[in-house]
Amino acid sequence: MGISRRKFIQASAAGTVAASTGFSPLTFASSHDTVKIGMNIPMTGDYAPWGLPGLYGCQIVADNLNASGGVEIGGKKHKIEIVSYDHGYDIEKAVQGYKKMVSQDEADMVMMLGGATVGAVMPWGERKNVFTTTLLCSDITPDTEHLVATCESHPLYVVTGVEWLAKNHPDAKTAVIVTNNDVEYGLQAAATFQAAFEVAGIEVVDMNLHGFDVTDFAPIVSSVLAKNPDIFCMATSFYTTPLMEQLYHQGYKGKVISTTLDYHEEVIAKTSQEFVDGTIHQFPAFDDPKLTEDGINFPDPGGFDAEFRKRHPNDWSAVSWEYPAIMLNWLEGAKAAGSTDSDKVLKALQSNPNPEFVFGGGKWWGKELWGRDNVVIGRWPVVVIEGGKTRIKEFASVSDWLDKHSDVLIKYMKSHGLRTVS
Amino acid sequence: MELFLQSIANGLVQGGFFALFAVGLVLIFGVMGVVNFAHGELVMVGAFTIWLLHAQYGLGYIPAIAVAIVLVTVIGLVMERLLFRPTRADPLAGLICSIGILFILQVIAALIGGDGPSKQVPPPYQGTLVMFESLRIPYQRVFSLAISVAALVSLWFFLTRTRYGWALRAVALDREAAELQGINTNRISMVAIGVGTALAGLAGGLIAPLTNINPHMGHNVIVTAFIVTIVGGVGSLSGAVLAAILYAVFHTLITVYFGATIATISGLVLMVVVLIVKPTGLMGVRVSE
After folding, report:
1. Are residues A371 and A405 in the same domain?
2. How many inter-chain contacts (A to B, CB under 8 Å) are there?
3. Do B261 and A210 touch (CB under 8 A)?
4. 3-state secondary structure B88-125
5. Residue A16 — pLDDT band, cuts 50, 70, 90?
6. What confidence score (pLDDT) does residue A4 get?
7. Which structural domain, as residue segments, surrounds residue A57?
8. Does ipTM come in above 0.85?
9. Is the pLDDT of residue A30 over 90?
10. Which residue of B has its CA nearest to A20?
11. Of A251, A254, A327, A277, residue with least CA distance to A56
């Protein structure tokens, strides 16, 4: 056809540059005389499932606290206001949102998902003494005094799932790992699963690291299933639904273990309940009866679950309760300190050697791997999908495993070139 | 051997998708001289339509595909009439307009469906064709491949056996000469973008039950379409089809035997090698400036 190839390529290149520059910040206005909780999280894009549902959850908890008169800090009642910013997991936007939250919105603390966005904001955050939280404990460095991971210690807790699997399915002896190839989520999880499998006596016979541009998971699943694994492990994948769909269609009969299985109802709709039943992961539904037992530090989990599903019927994800748990933890610190000052809250929280942890059994940890005891680890649930519902099978101690086997974890972290001070 | 055959089967299904949207891109570029950067978003609109009408409102899958094709075609026709035709003299203006449309369609999709978690469409055709234990193809993929082949064969008939098809090829070869022969090039441009965008809508409809649907899914589509177009030979429809199949099988085999990351890199390297070694692509022809 009569248009030159050169013009086509020139135009394509120009378009690529132009198409990569869009952004869409989303902010909510704040008011004064309140405790301001900042959420600098992804609410759009690939990472949105690990941001937006957390904002919904925090709003529910804030509404409940405000309806009961607010939170007493320093002898005075404070209302809670959520200040949010959508950075879409874009580093520049994350920095912009973080500075806006602290400088203009006067947020008292800032919650973030973790990874590169946290790494980008912390140098400024440390200069300003901003109490900042992450879900990725690997974000902690010797220099991040004000960065804490007080709820999810991704991906350390996966060791409990592997331990449970080995105990309850001793015939499963080989595993394959499929995960995203990013350093922050995928490789950290791959290393932790490898360590957990080694400790459990399970051989990893193949590992497939993939990027974020995969649109067809059939070849990836075909490739690893050719190794006839007893266990298919999705370490940290944004693509659990298409992976599960391919496992189903390619006739996989073994066990499946995953860090999480958000939106498992969609997986069932694409496969079958029988196929999905038995899948092991680590993030409970909050209507689980086991969350009413002693030792759980989350107010009325069942009521929270019901309200969340009423307000946002299809949006529950792993982070729905995590950001609220972090917010509640910070509020406890502020109450203990009698102040919202970052250093005072941090000191109040860290002065407790057995801090309140959402599932109980918390302790400060992290120096061995990242140079600071700014991570709270404790009991973590192992959940299995049964009858189409996520149900907790047991709570197991992450810290017990780490006390015995952290050297194995460090070995695999180093094999992937992951940062550790050890 | 079974893994190899499974990979070939997977690659052929992917090749069908790639061919549908790459051929549409080539058709629009060939006739109108516009690099339609919004082509990936048109596929997204097709997929989103299936999610909305079929998965959310229960409309049958086939009627939903029909609506997707009509909707995307109408968008294409509006783009041609309001944007591409007035800017025809300046190819860069058309490109910029298409980028604007790209963002507009993303925002509209986000407003309708949200820009949070990806959408899923349960496959209307459940079950798996088991040829032998390790060679399995889900019926949904078999259906998609069959429809893709049927659409491409229909396009071939249209281009080679109908007056509009001949006129379209004539305009693509030489617009001025076609006008001198009395061909209404404005009408042919409408036909070209209508057919090209209809194929994009169909591709979106077929891919919807097989992938994560989100407002940004068009990015991967357009990158693949450019690789296929360049490897096949810019402006060559048959080259685009051949390249789509070869590239899909190549990409699938590399993914299986060397990993997904290597496959992505290999695809881009392949494109660069073609540009260096055979700049006209597999079936393109050299055109003087």
Report:
1. no
2. 174
3. yes
4. CCCHHHHHHHHHHHHHHHHHHHHHHHCCCCCECCCCCC
5. low
6. 59
7. 34-154+299-377
8. no
9. no
10. B219
11. A327
